[in-house]
Design a protein that fits this description.
The chain has about 325 residues and is α/β, with parallel strands linked by helices. It folds into two domains: about 1-180, 3-Layer(aba) Sandwich (Rossmann fold), CATH 3.40.50.720; about 180-325, Orthogonal Bundle (N-(1-d-carboxylethyl)-l-norvaline Dehydrogenase, domain 2). Helix 9 (about 180-205) runs antiparallel to helix 10 (about 210-230), helix 12 runs antiparallel to helix 13 and helix 15 runs antiparallel to helix 16. The strands form two sheets. The chain has an eight-stranded mixed beta sheet, sandwiched between helices. A two-stranded antiparallel ribbon has the order 3-4. The chain is built from 16 helices and ten strands.
Length: about 325
């Protein structure tokens, strides 16, 4: 089986390594020619996933036609800001029988669209219907090191979801299926916003009580919005919801958490992004979540305050103060 992974960041590289270790022939595509050449030469992605050697069956290229030649599986692992461009670039270059897997965790900031919706717009409803979403508490570094974990694949076409399940399952990765692609995609994207909030709390020097509050109330907001958008609320208690939220809010490997920490410490957004050096999906998804909360008239106070810190230069301490001084209410509502 020939597999193409579009995106050679830490996540795309980790997935390529996982599949290569299973013996599949993998072509890892990079937008940048210099990065593709360096990965092929060094047999290691020193920029995004250092100290992880590529299996012999993994090859690097920046030529899209070369990457897609003869493939039977395409895994798209690019940031949400690049998904529409990449989907457009592959239009007409692969057969409809090819298994298409979207492994990104973000929403389009201008529209609030999920990955599979963007794919449907760019590649057609038939391909979008059969698209499989991959999501879960899967930090790239840990996955590449073979740390035991689990993930979930979701699709409207459960036969394709089963094929994706078989593709990724390994001794260190347990893979579950879920027919709720809306919930799986929203959970994987929206948890990044809450992860920034958890980081802000850490940067302000708050403790475990605060972290637990951010996680639980954040999950309530994610579930509230997701349910209105057609997701099954139970999905948000699973791997792509609560599971991914926990990993993002607890691990310093999480870029979204680290971004929040720097903001909480008083750094500007520009300083924080420069120090981070990689894309933090939560920043762009926060714009989308704020947009969607207004569109669907959903109460999301934590998302609203995180948005104000990121895009309106609001003081993190003032944001916390405003959250804590809201009118009293029932918990489950």
């Amino acid at each position: 089986m020939n597999i193409t992974v579009l995106g050679s960041g830490s996540w795309g590289t980790a997935l390529g390594v996982l599949l290569g270790r299973k013996g599949y022939r993998v072509k890892l595509w990079s937008r940048r020619e210099d990065l593709a050449v360096a990965i092929e030469r060094d047999r290691e992605n020193t920029r995004y996933l250092p100290e992880i050697m590529l299996p012999e069956s993994v090859f690097s290229t920046s030529d899209m036609d070369d990457a897609l030649d003869g493939c039977s599986v395409i895994v798209i692992a690019v940031p949400s800001t690049a998904l529409r461009e990449v989907a457009s670039a592959v239009k007409g270059k692969f057969d409809h029988e090819v298994l298409l897997i979207h492994a990104g965790k973000g929403l389009e900031s201008e529209t609030g669209l999920r990955g599979s919706q963007i794919i449907s717009q760019e590649l057609g409803e038939e391909i979008g219907y059969g698209c499989v979403a991959l999501s879960g508490p899967n930090l790239a570094v840990e996955l590449a090191h073979g740390v035991p974990t689990a993930t979930v694949v979701a699709s409207q076409d459960m036969d394709r979801a089963a094929k994706a399940q078989e593709l990724f399952v390994s001794p260190s990765l347990r893979v579950y299926r879920n027919p709720d692609i809306i919930g799986v995609e929203l959970g994987g994207a929206l948890k990044n916003v809450i992860g920034i909030g958890a980081g802000i709390a850490d940067g302000l020097g708050y403790g475990d009580n605060t972290k637990a509050t951010v996680v639980t109330r954040g999950l309530m907001e994610v579930t509230r919005l997701g349910s209105v958008m057609g997701a099954d609320p139970k999905t948000f208690t699973g791997l792509s919801g609560f599971g991914d939220l926990m990993a993002t809010c607890a691990s310093r490997l999480s870029r979204n958490l680290r971004l929040g920490v720097m903001l909480g410490e008083g750094k500007s957004l520009e300083e924080s992004l420069q120090a981070l050096g990689q894309v933090a999906e939560g920043m762009h998804t926060c714009e989308a979540a704020y947009l969607l909360s207004r569109k669907h008239e959903i109460y999301m106070p934590m998302t609203e305050q995180i948005h104000a810190v990121i895009f309106e230069s609001k003081s993190p301490k003032q944001a916390v103060c405003d959250l804590m001084s809201r009118n009293h209410k029932d918990e489950i509502c």
